[in-house]
Please model this.
Amino acid sequence: MSDISQECQTELTGLRREIDAIDQQVVDLLSKRQKQVEHVVALKKAHNLQVYHPAREEDLISARRQQAREAGLCPDYIEELYRVIMRRSRVEQTGQMAGKAVKPGATVLIVGGTGEMGRYFLDWFNGAGYRVRSMGSKDWPNVAALCDGIDLCIISVIIDRTPEIVERIGPYLPPDAVLVDVTSIKKVPLNAMLEAHPGPVLGLHPLFGPTTSTLDKQIVVATPGRDDDACRWVIDQFSLWGSIIVMSDADEHDEIMEFVQSLRHFATFAFGQFLASKNVPLARSLEFSSPIYRLELGMVGRLFAQDASLYAEIIFATPERRALLKDYINSLNKNLEMLEKGDKSKFEQEFKKIAEWFGPFGEQAMRESSFLIDKLIERF
Model:
C-alpha cells in the first residue's frame, strides 16, 4: 500500500511540475502580449485614437470562445479569462493615454476646482499636459486674469448654483473658449451657458464620481450646445482617456436621468430608511442572505456611505424629478388593496404584464445578474 502511495506521490509531483512549467509559459505569453499592447498604445497616442474598441473586443471574444470549443474547454471560462485580460489591457492603455493631450498647449480653467469633482478633473487635465487653472469661491477678484487666454472653461459646482456661476463668468470668457458644465441635469445649465457665452458651448454629464480610479468604460453623456466642431476636442479627450461618450439632447438626457438617477437613488434611500426604522440586524441578516440579497443590500449600503448633500442635489434637482417621485410613491399605495386581500392572482397578473413589458431584457438581466452573483460567491 505504501509503495502504491509513493508511486502516486511521485506521479503527482511530476504532473505538478509540468503544470508549473505551463503556468510559467502562460505568464511569459501574457508578458509578450503586453509588449504588443504597448506598441498599440504608442500608435494610438500618435494618432489620438480611442482606447476602447467594442467591435474588436467582441470579435476577439467570439474567436476565443470558438477556439475553446474546439479545444474541449468551457467557452464561458475562456471568455471570463479574456475579459479580465482585456480589462487589464484597457486600464494600462488608459493610464498611458492620460498623459496625452488632444489639444496640446491649451489652457483649461476649472471653476469649482477646489471641490471633489473639480479636483478630479484638474488632475486628469494636468496629467495630460494641459495648462490648468483652478478657481474657487474666493477667487472672483481675480476672475479676469484667470479667464485670460483660456481655451476651455469647465463649470464644476453644485446644480443649484450652476446658472448663477455661468452668468457671472460669461463676460470674462474669450469668444472662442469652450464653455462646459458637468452637472447631472442638462437643460437648465445648457440654456444658461448659451445665454451667457456667444462662443462654443457643450454640456457634459460624467456618470461617475471623484473616487473613480480609471476612466475606462466610464460613461460621459455629451449634449451639444453651440459650435460642435470647436467642442469636438473636449469630447475626444474623454474618449482618449477611455470613456464611452453617449450623445443626447438636453431634453432626452434629463428625462432619462429622472429614472436612472433620481428614482433609483430615492428608491434605494427609501429601502434603507425602512430597514433602519425596523432596526433590522444587518450583520445577522447577511448570514441568512442569498447572494442577490447581499448584492442588493450592498447597493443600499453604498448609497449611505457617501455624501448626503450630493444625493440631495441629484434627487431634488428639478420639479420634474420631484413630481416623478410622488408618482412613484402613489404607485406603491395602489398595491395596498392587493396586500390587504392577499390577492395572489392579482399579483401574478401584474407580474406577467410587467414581465411582458421588460421583454428580452429579462433574459439579459438574468445573465448579467448571474455573473455578478457568481463573482460575489467567489469573494464571500
